Amino acid sequence: MKHANRHEVAEKVFWSIALPGFGQLLNGKLFKGFLFIALEILVNVQANFNQIIILSFNRKIRESIEQTNYQWLMFYPCIYMFAIWDAYKDAGGGKDRYSFLPFVFGAYFVTLGLIYSPCLKVFGVLLGPMWLPMLSLPIGLALGVMIKKIVERFINST
């Protein structure tokens, strides 16, 4: 495998953000790419995710909560974040041992946001199954980066 530059890595990560599986296809991992695309479509359809997005953008939060199939949507954060990390890793990024931690914590916090989305209000506003998980992502990523740095510092000091 040739050494990828940061722009190639970023391109594959951004395509994976656009649709899980695209980064894998660009990395030449066809089976994984089509598997992630199929999983994304399956979970998206079963969870009514496109309808949730439309309703959320139109500020119909209660309706979006009612349309959500939480049993299916709970799979989405882990599939999504794993696909992004996998594309990143296969593109040549994340060579350090703990590069997965921000992605893991990102998925975890998005999942927590999803769990609490039907009832948690932020500044008195119910955000629902799209906005609360999205706003939870930066918190998870930041915590993952901090924990990664702490673990690396601890490992390097021993």
What is the fold's blueprint, element by element?
Layout: H1 6-18, H2 22-26, H3 30-47, H4 49-57, H5 61-67, H6 70-73, H7 76-90, H8 101-116, E1 121-122, E2 125-126, H9 128-157
Antiparallel strand pairs: 1-2
Helix pairs in contact: 1-7, 3-7, 4-5, 7-8, 8-9
Transmembrane segments: 69-88, 100-118, 130-147
Keywords: Membrane, Transmembrane, Transmembrane helix
- How helical, in percent, are the residues? over 70%
Order of adjacent strands in the largest pleated sheet: 1-2
User: H/E element string?
Assistant: HHHHHHHHEEH
| Helix/strand class | mainly alpha
Shape designation: globular
Q: What average pLDDT do the residues reach?
A: 94
Report low-confidence residues grouped into runs of 5 or more.
none
Quaternary structure annotation: single chain
Number of helices: 9
Largest sheet: 2 strands, antiparallel
What does this structure look like?
Keywords: Membrane, Transmembrane, Transmembrane helix. The chain crosses the membrane at residues 69-88, 100-118, 130-147. A hairpin with a 2-residue loop joins β1 (121-122) and β2 (125-126). This protein is 74% helix and 3% strand. It has one domain (6-157). The chain contains 9 helices and 2 strands. The relative contact order is 0.13. The mean pLDDT is 94. The chain has helices at 6-18, 22-26, 30-47, 49-57, 61-67, 70-73, 76-90, 101-116, 128-157, and strands spanning 121-122, 125-126.
